[in-house]
Amino acid sequence: MTTGEDASDQSDGPPFEKRRIDTDCNTDETQLSHYLELLSNRRRRRILYYLEAHEVTDIDSLARHVAETAGDQETFNEREFERAKTSVVHVDLPKLSEIGTVEYDRRNGAVRYRQPPTPLANLLDACTELDAQPHDVD
Hints:
By secondary structure, the chain is mainly alpha-helical. Helix content is 55%, strand content 8%.
């Protein structure tokens, strides 16, 4: 979310021009760095976007989504799915679980989204906007 601007000002010019992301005043530098590190990984952002939309899913659906959105859908195969699933289960979900944003039940494979802390939610909103922008490749 932004501060000091109304929604009509946001559509003019490049994204985030003259914008300030409202992070909770109680967020210390270490916590903010941790949130930025979490969101610096595209796969973790895809996981959070997917869970925001679905709230509850199973590990196979989540891993399939991550694998399909990571590369060329026409060449997607089972090996890529298994690789994505391994990374999601052993790397990404534990990191997201640490901050209470995701709950993963290994027994039944259920993955649940929990509302992230306000500063992380605001940063994720900013990432959503930036990821939706076309990217110029120089």
